[in-house]
Amino acid sequence: MTTAAAAGTWKLGDVTVNRMGFGAMRITANPDRSVAIQVLRRAVELGVNHIDTAAFYASPGGTLQVGEGEKRYANELIREALAPYPEGLVITTKVGPGDDPERGFYNATTAAELREQVETNLRQLGVDALDVVNLRIMKKPGEDSITERFGWLAALRDEGLIRQLGVSNVRIDHVEEALAIAPVVCVQNSYAVDLRRDEDQLIDFCAERGIAYVPFFAIAGSSREGGATTDHSTAVEKIAAAHNVSPQQVRLAWTLHHSPNILAIPGTGNPSHLEANIAAGALQLSPEELAGLD
User: Fold this and answer.
1) What φ, ψ does residue 18 adopt, rounded to 5°?
2) Axis crossing angle, helix 33-45 with helix 74-82, rounded to the nearest 10
3) What pLDDT does 102 receive?
4) 162-168 and 130-136 as β-strands: parallel, antiparallel, unpaired?
5) Handedness of CA 220, 221, 223, 229 (dihedral sign)
6) Which of 57, 73, 85, 191 is an active site residue?
7) Fold entry, domain 4-293
8) What is the pLDDT of residues 157-200, one digit of tens each?
9) Beta-carbon neighbour count of residue 226 at 10 Å?
10) CA distance linking residue 87 with residue 83, whole number of Å
11) How do the domains of the chain map onto residue ranges?
12) What burial class does residue 38 get, using C-beta atoms within 10 Å of its C-beta: 0-12 exposed, 13-18 middle, 19+ buried?
């Protein structure tokens, strides 16, 4: 059985992780909590030691706008499945967006709101300090400096509530702003073989500084929260047929081949999809195949 180690490793700051990780957004969709528990435990059994999550990953409703039954939070499912957490497991969460029962979905703009979101993550995950926290922003041209907000998170790090910091949905100038305040261990943006290829310059910028680049929607592409796309290029389909794998596995393999600092975080609530995703870490693409995809 292929494990997450087949994808190789990279450092998240002072911690080395397997480049094939797991994204927790989709585990809340199934009203049967036991399925999410099964998927999470199996992921760790298969060598996943980097899980991406957020306090606002919840169903029914939430980011996915799906589901029924009682409210389910990804963080609480992670805690139920994996606590006490195995040594070496890194859980990365994000703040900025929030989901409040009274206000609905909102974006944190004050130090108090960011602290509240950090404390919610701490409580849901059942930890004293968060391994990595990404500041996720809503880009507004001309109005989107992150200096103040990232500074507030750096202060929470200094308090011991956060170990390491990252940024999400950002440009190079945002990363430079953040680096002037505190170390940045990861950048998390949407990116895929057919999505936002103008990100390549940012990926190289991060690689030169030892910063992990963590793309989301690598499988979903333009379908985004809708899930795995079925709109694959002819090149992706051809390579998948040649290797007797799925197009989704080709998309993941390309993601990992593209740069050594890329960490994949495919998410699923389906146990069989989980194993297929992890197996993609062992898929070797030739220079000719990579060139065809580029």
Assistant:
1) -70, 140
2) 60
3) 79
4) parallel
5) negative
6) 57
7) TIM Barrel (3.20.20)
8) 999 999 999 999 999 999 999 999 999 999 999 998 887 777 89
9) 13
10) 11
11) 4-293
12) middle
Closest CA to 163 of 189, 186, 180, 145: 186
Are 62 and 56 contacting, i.e. CB atoms less than 8 angstroms apart? yes
Per-residue pLDDT reduced to its tens digit, 115-145: 999 999 999 999 999 999 999 998 776 678 9
Show the 3-state SS of the chain. CCCHHHHCEEEECCEEEECECEECHHHHCCCCHHHHHHHHHHHHHCCCCEEECCCCCEECECCCCECCCCCEEHHHHHHHHHCCCCCCCEEEEEECEEEECCCEEEECCCHHHHHHHHHHHHHHHCCCCEEEEEEECCCCCCCCCCHHHHHHHHHHHHHCCEEEEEEECCCHHHHHHHHCCCCCCEEECECECCECHHHHHHHHHHHHCCCEECCECCCCHHHHHHCCCCCCCHHHHHHHHHHCCCHHHHHHHHHHHHCCCECECCECCCHHHHHHHHHHHHCCCCHHHHHHHC
Q: Does the annotation count 73 as an active-site position?
A: no
The count of residues in the chain is 294
CB 135 within 8 A of CB 115: no
d(CA 266, CA 263): 10
